[in-house]
Design goal:
The chain is an alpha+beta fold. The chain folds into two domains: 5-73 and 180-201, 2-Layer Sandwich (Alpha-Beta Plaits), CATH 3.30.70; 78-173, Alpha-L RNA-binding motif (Alpha-Beta Plaits), CATH 3.30.70.1560. Helices cover 15% and strands 27% of the residues. A hairpin with an 8-residue loop joins strand 2 and strand 3 (55-61). The two termini are 19 Å apart. The model has no long low-confidence stretch (mean pLDDT 90).
């Protein structure tokens, strides 16, 4: 039987698992929704995680060895994130903050690997539900960051460490070696699709 590989656009306020922390289904609980509310494919599990308050791309599969390999820190494939951040009165210049992210920053005693980071225009994304809370006196900008590691709440902690707290965070792409990037293209929040045959063939099967 062929393995399944799914791409899912995780909405805000959804757990990256099929059961809640107490082990019960959260399909009917709007406050603690899980993947079960959106995906009815049996025995698939997420490769990595997204925080409940983050949005964007999840790869899921029922291929256990593949799921384990891609989730292992030593594999180190890149993930692309779009972060809408606050530029407060005490924030440094944007380019100075980006340069710090490129060199690596210390968060909770851990020195992050250098990230690829740049400022981008506001991406074409669906409105978040609920919307972020804007403060008229505090402008926002968007950062694009590529990370090859995934510590708990790492992007948020990195941007806060350089003076730009994250308001909205979206994983926009998963980049695997020698493969076409997996992106949100064609998906809306809550939607999923199977990988194409070409995408499956390009996965690192060894």
């Amino acid at each position: 039987m062929a393995y399944r590989y799914l791409l899912f656009y995780k909405p805000y306020n959804v757990l990256s698992q099929f059961t809640d922390a107490d082990g019960s289904s959260a399909k009917g609980n709007a406050d603690r929704r899980t993947l079960k509310a959106f995906i009815d494919v049996p025995n698939v599990y997420a490769v990595g995680r997204l925080d409940r308050d983050s949005e964007g791309l999840l790869l899921l599969t029922d291929n256990g060895p593949m799921q384990h390999r891609l989730s292992h820190p030593k594999f180190g494939h890149e993930r692309q994130y779009w972060a809408q951040v606050e530029q407060g009165a005490n924030s440094p210049p944007v380019e100075d903050a980006l340069e710090q992210l490129r060199k690596g920053v210390t968060i909770r005693g851990y020195r992050t690997r250098p990230a690829k980071a740049m400022q981008i225009r506001s991406p074409d994304l669906p409105q978040r539900d609920p919307p972020i809370r804007y403060r008229k006196q505090v402008p926002t900008v968007w950062f694009e960051m590529l990370l090859s590691e995934g510590k708990n709440r790492q992007v948020r902690r990195m941007t806060a460490a350089v003076g730009f707290p994250t308001l909205r965070l979206v994983r926009s792409a998963i980049l695997l070696p020698d493969a076409k990037p997996l992106t949100l293209s064609g998906l809306q929040p809550g939607q999923w699709r199977d990988l194409t045959n070409g995408e499956v063939r390009s996965l690192p099967h060894r």
